[in-house]
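Quiz preparation item.
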């Protein structure tokens, strides 16, 4: 789960969040969550990583990720590294 600066909080409905993560995963919800984990890992691996820039660029996806995580985290706990 991400600690999103309040400026970038835009909480989608559960259905919208599921749709966004599913699209990101090419049709799979869990694949979308994992794909976004890779995006975050790539970001923090950069020596000049700017979190504000990340949240600005990925605002909708990061909020969707949190909604899915909050609603389905227990189901995915064995599959996703947080």
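Solution:
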């Amino acid at each position: 789960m991400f600690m999103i600066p309040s400026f970038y909080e835009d909480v989608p409905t559960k259905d919208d969040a599921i749709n966004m993560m599913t699209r990101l995963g090419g049709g799979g919800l869990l694949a979308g969550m994992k794909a976004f984990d890779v995006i975050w890992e790539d970001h923090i691996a950069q020596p000049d990583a700017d979190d504000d820039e990340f949240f600005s660029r990925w605002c909708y996806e990061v909020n969707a990720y949190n909604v899915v995580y909050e609603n389905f985290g227990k189901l995915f706990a064995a599959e996703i590294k947080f």
